[in-house]
Amino acid sequence: MGQRRRRGHPHAHHHRCPRRIALPAAALALLFLAVSLVSVSLLSAPPLPDRPGLGSSSSSSSRRFLRHHQANSSGGELEGSGSGEAFGIPTHESIASYDLWRSKLASNFYGCSNSSSKFLDSSVTTQPDRYLIVVTSGGLNQQRTGIIDAVVAARILNATLVVPKLDQTSFWKDSSNFSEIFDIDWFISFLAKDVKIIKEPPEKGGKVMRPYKMRVPRKCTPRCYLNRVLPALLKKHVIRMTKYDYRLSNKLDTDLQKLRCRVNYHALKFTDPIQELGEKLVQRMREKSRHFIALHLRFEPDMLAFSGCYYGGGEKERKELGAIRKRWKTLHIRDPEKGRRQGRCPLTPEEVGLMLRALGYTSDVHIYVASGEIYGGEDTLAPLKALFPNFHTKETVSSEEELAPFLKFSSRMAAVDFIVCDESDAFVANNIGNMAKILAGRRRYFGHKRTIRPNAKQLYPLFLKRGNMSWDAFSSQVRIIQKGYMGEPMEINPGRGEFHANPAACICEKTRGNLAVKSSSGSNVEHVNDTGIRKAIGEPPYPVYTDEEADGSDTEDDPTGRVEMIDTETDDDTVTRQEDPEPEEILSD
After folding, report:
1. CA distance 344 to 321
2. Cα–Cα distance for residue pair 551/384, rounded to 1 Å
């Protein structure tokens, strides 16, 4: 006993264990440590596909959340749950090597949508007894694309456009008409030189002229309109095109693309009540912080159901989203895992938060989330809120009295979110829907404001491996993966992708000496500015369609050249038959 007490005494270091005793003890300790590490790695392996997750209100779902270490209540770092090892996330990340809030090259580019001298005034081009009526389809932003293309279609046909009729019967069932969302008088007056627009259908002999109803194929080219719609218009004088969404080609000549931009970025202004509330919310976000992020989360049940994606909620999630998915009878069964691997699924709120923190946005950044009802509710949002405690929505930034006039109208509520997202310092689009496309293009046009598109295809495998990585390694990989998805100029080649997301024909580059050169369809000259960026000013990266063309198909994606669909329903759109929404419709907002 005395010997053991002396061995533990600070001055008894000269009494050592015999070597034959010390070595076996050390070996046993190492063996125990190795077994422990193997056990921990097995126990903390990535969760099985049917782990409790989204849509589960049970306490077990909290294992997926990010939470503060129990021993560090002062908030030193966050721990990522479901990790193989401690996935420490610094509360205050080091400053990124690039500007998180703006592009250094943005000042070299500007929006340019003025027409060329060859684009004649509507007073010259508009022909008598030609009237075009369109009925849009989908949510707010899908209808916006329909309105834009309707103006261009009227110009192609040299027709007078009747103010478009909004969709009031589909998924969102919003009863708003055009003048309750957009400033109708501004719309008509701003475009007066491009297209003649009237508020009501034409009359003859005191009676409204009966329109001839038809539908053109999707992505119908100008030649398609001249071949298929114009003959009917000359004979019937009034054409009514229904379900008008994506019925005009992505590929148009430069003047028509610029007309698209004039409609989208200048003629379509929200009504004063919508604009005023949106601006109030922007001002309140600015009062909270110098900069803020707007996140279009798009993680509602309908979005997840339509996408066919799976997020680990087990049988409960499969049943709930499967029931919603039955609304669309034409949808085929999809492989949920394949969809995630291909980047076709929205990131979870937790994954969005991890991506932003890895990019360098710190936990004190204020985030405005534009979204409807999130699938899984607060349980699903908890990880994002843990990463960014300064979490806001239109409901939290405004009062009940301010929101009351808009609550029953989904499109007006979406319009308020649109304004805040548009004015944010950084916008994150967690989907490829219409709002994401429209805002991405708009932010490019008005100065290349920071716009982040998650590279979901490459991020997904990284999220799966994050439990076996340090935070520094994870963050470094995220920054590499996101290069080219941060809203920098020239990220997307002209002509690639949807025009509304990449309006290349309407974005010009300044040349040396601050001389601005407008793009023109006749110029293929490349200009190189002081930044070394090379861009073909005005070179159309797509074919220009003319009346004289007589080549193959007259639709962009339809080599069969389907004939137009003739509608035989009643003129009253409120009682037309319900149809399965198109993919763009459910992805609209």
Report:
1. 17
2. 53
* CA 89 to chain CA mean position, Å: 27
Nearest to 444 by CA among 504, 399, 496, 494: 504
* Residue 458 · residue 280 · CB < 8 Å: no
What HEC string does 108-168 produce? Answer: HEEECCCCCCCCCCHHHHCCCCCEEEEEECCCHHHHHHHHHHHHHHHHHHCCEEECCECCC
- Tell me the C-alpha distance between 246 and 206, whole Å: 34
pLDDT by residue for the chain (589 residues), tens only, comes to: 444 444 444 444 444 444 444 445 555 555 555 545 444 444 443 333 333 345 444 333 333 434 333 333 334 445 444 433 446 787 665 556 678 999 989 999 999 999 999 999 999 999 999 999 999 998 999 999 999 999 999 999 999 999 999 988 776 678 999 999 999 999 999 999 999 999 999 999 889 999 999 999 999 999 999 999 999 999 999 999 999 989 999 999 999 999 999 999 999 999 999 999 999 999 999 999 999 999 999 898 888 888 888 888 888 988 888 888 887 777 777 777 788 888 888 999 999 999 999 999 999 999 999 988 899 999 999 999 999 999 999 999 999 999 999 999 999 999 999 999 999 999 999 987 899 999 999 999 999 999 999 999 999 999 999 989 999 999 999 999 999 999 999 887 776 778 999 999 999 998 765 444 444 333 323 333 333 333 333 333 223 333 233 234 566 654 444 444 444 333 444 333 344 445 444 444 5
DSSP annotation string for 356-369 = HHHHT--TT-EEEE
Cα gap 86→84, rounded to integer Å? 7
Quote the tokens at residue 480: 């590499």
C-alpha R_g of the chain: 29
Using an 8 Å Cβ cutoff, are 285 and 368 in contact? yes
Task: Please state, in angstroms and as integers, the Cα–Cα distance from residue 46 to each residue in 35, 43, 380, 384, 533, following that order.
Answer: 19, 9, 18, 20, 44
DSSP H or E stretch at residue 402? helix 400-403
Torsion over CA: 541, 547, 548, 554 (sign): positive
Annotate 371-406 with b (16+ C-beta within 10 A) or e (fewer).
bbebbbeebbbbbbbbbbebbbbbeebbeeeeeeeb
The answer to whether residues 166 and 181 touch, using CB atoms and an 8 Å cutoff, is: yes
